[in-house]
Structures are given as structure tokens and as C-alpha cells.
């Protein structure tokens, strides 16, 4: 079975102590990940090492950064490079979250550079795509996300695209409590897989995990994850509540 992933995105929330406590609480639930399942915690930069040692003994539990810079290194005060993440043994990084696109003006081209740097540094990018409400209402969401993938991912050779995790996060569903319906999620995930198949081939497309993000909660995760092309979730708000995230982990196929 394709890899199924429960990914927590803490965003800019929780103090160090609160984060540590939350991880302790989640680990205390002793959820065993099956071979094809993974749990990933995307935590703020200063908590990466703490989170990594928290999960060190757990099978298929990983830590992700929420971003990295699109340049290799240099005079960019306050920025964090993919190489720095690699030097901390961090193996996942969220790339192109809609909040970064919106508030930090990240473009598809810049994201392609980040993707390359992640791969060079043995980091699996969790590449986010998704449309705003106006685009959904105009019915052009497929073209919009296709462009995002084309400009940020489709320069990769087949061997590398297999290493990517894609997260479909419709902006109108993020933090709004308005989840995409299972039909909307399945339809878009199937479409994303079909364009990956078109660019590469069907076998490769079948290997790429595609996560859904946008108001995933303890009470809707199972239904969303049942969709054949939804391979888990990228979870914001509900990942900050131990019991809720544990329930989401339990909901993986
Ligand atoms: P919410 O789960 O809070 O809607 O956030 C989703 C998200 O942006 C995860 O990256």
C-alpha cells in the first residue's frame, strides 16, 4: 500500500515547553505505525532537535521543518537553509504552504529552488498546493493546481518525484472549519495523481503520497482518509490538541 501519513503542522504556535508536553502526551498514547504509515511533526525551527529526540525511539515517527530558504547559504540574516536542516538530521520539510505564498510572497519558481535544495540535502519536501476560494468558485481549481505542480515539481526526474509528498490544501478550508467534502477531496487528489501520471507515468504517480489539509479534525479524518487517493492529512489546529491528533493518527488507512 502507498505510504499513509499523519502530519502535524504546528505553524507559529506553542512555547517550547508546551510543544514538549504535547509530544509527550501524543507519545504516551503509544500508537504503533504500521510499515506503510508515518507520523510527522512539523515544528518551529528552535524545537527541531527537541522533537527529534522525543521521537527517536519510535518507528516511523519523523520531524519536519515548516520552511527553508530557497538559497544555498550566505548573507540572509534570520534565514534557515536546507543544509542546516540536514545537519540536524531533519528529513522532511514543508515547502510552499499557502501561508508562505500569501504572507511571504513565495512564488512557484522560488519553490522549485527550495525543492531542489531539499533533495540535494536528503530532505523529503512536503509540497503544498491548493486554490483560493475565488478560484474554486470560478471552477478553475484544476488548472490552478496543475500550474503549481508544473512550475515547482515537474522539472524533477522520475527518480526524484517519487521522493516527494504532495499536500492538497484548499485555502478556503484552512483554519476555517470548512472542510472539503470527501467528493471534493477525492476528485482533486485523483486529478493530481493523473497529472503526475501524465508527466511521468502511472506507476510513479501511484507511489506519491497525496495528503489532504484544511480543517482536518478528529471527527472527519477517518472519512477523508477513506478516499482511495487521500493518503492522510496535513493538520493545523487539531494537531495542537494531543487527543485529537492521536485520533487522527488512528484514522490512517
Ligand atoms: P487547519 O487544520 O488548521 O485548517 O490548517 C491546515 C493547514 O494549513 C496545515 O498545513
Please supply descriptive tags for the structure shown above.
8-stranded parallel barrel; alpha/beta; globular; binds 1,3-dihydroxyacetonephosphate; 253 residues; single chain; TIM Barrel
Description:
The chain is α/β, with parallel strands linked by helices. It has one domain: TIM Barrel, CATH 3.20.20.70. It has 12 helices and 8 strands. An 8-stranded parallel β-barrel has the order 1-2-3-4-5-6-7-8, surrounded by 5 helices. It is globular and about 45 Å long. 1,3-dihydroxyacetonephosphate is lined by residues 9, 97, 169, 174-175, 213-216, 234-238.
Q: Report the top-level CATH class.
A: Alpha Beta
For this structure, the CATH topology is TIM Barrel
Name the strands of the widest sheet in spatial order. 1-2-3-4-5-6-7-8
* Number of helices, counting only DSSP H or I runs of 4 residues or more: 12
Low-confidence stretches: none
Residue share in β-strands: 15-25%
The percentage helix is 40-55%
Calculate the terminal CA-CA distance, rounded to whole Å: 9 Å
Count of strand segments:
8
Q: Rounded to an integer, what's the Rg over CA atoms?
A: 17 Å
Q: What is the mean pLDDT?
A: 97
Q: CATH superfamily, called what?
A: Aldolase class I
Write out the distinct hetero groups bound to the structure.
1,3-dihydroxyacetonephosphate
Give the class from helix and strand content and strand pairing: alpha/beta
Amino acid at each position: 500500500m502507498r505510504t499513509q501519513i499523519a502530519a502535524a503542522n504546528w505553524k507559529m504556535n506553542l512555547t517550547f515547553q508546551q510543544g514538549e508536553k504535547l509530544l509527550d502526551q501524543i507519545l504516551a498514547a503509544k500508537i504503533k505505525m504500521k510499515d506503510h504509515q508515518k507520523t510527522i511533526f512539523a515544528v518551529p525551527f528552535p524545537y527541531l532537535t527537541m522533537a527529534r529526540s522525543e521521537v527517536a525511539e519510535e518507528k516511523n515517527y519523523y520531524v519536519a521543518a515548516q520552511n527553508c530558504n530557497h538559497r544555498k547559504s550566505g548573507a540572509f540574516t534570520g534565514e534557515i537553509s536546507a543544509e542546516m536542516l540536514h545537519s540536524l538530521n531533519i528529513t522532511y520539510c514543508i515547502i510552499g504552504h499557502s501561508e508562505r505564498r500569501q504572507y511571504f510572497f513565495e512564488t512557484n519558481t522560488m519553490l522549485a529552488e527550495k525543492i531542489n535544495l531539499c533533495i540535494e540535502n536528503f530532505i523529503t519536501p512536503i509540497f503544498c498546493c491548493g486554490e483560493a476560494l475565488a478560484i474554486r468558485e470560478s471552477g478553475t481549481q484544476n488548472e490552478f493546481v496543475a500550474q503549481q505542480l508544473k512550475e515547482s515539481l515537474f522539472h524533477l526526474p522520475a527518480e526524484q518525484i517519487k521522493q516527494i509528498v504532495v499536500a492538497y490544501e484548499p485555502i478556503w478550508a484552512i483554519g476555517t472549519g470548512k472542510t472539503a467534502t470527501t467528493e471534493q477531496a477525492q476528485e482533486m487528489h485523483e486529478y493530481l495523481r493523473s497529472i503526475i501520471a501524465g508527466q511521468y507515468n502511472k506507476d510513479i504517480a501511484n507511489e506519491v503520497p497525496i495528503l489532504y489539509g484544511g480543517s482536518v479534525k478528529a471527527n472527519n479524518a477517518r472519512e477523508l482518509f477513506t478516499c482511495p487517493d487521500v493518503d492522510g492529512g496535513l493538520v493545523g489546529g487539531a494537531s495542537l490538541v494531543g487527543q485529537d491528533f492521536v485520533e487522527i493518527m488512528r484514522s490512517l488507512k
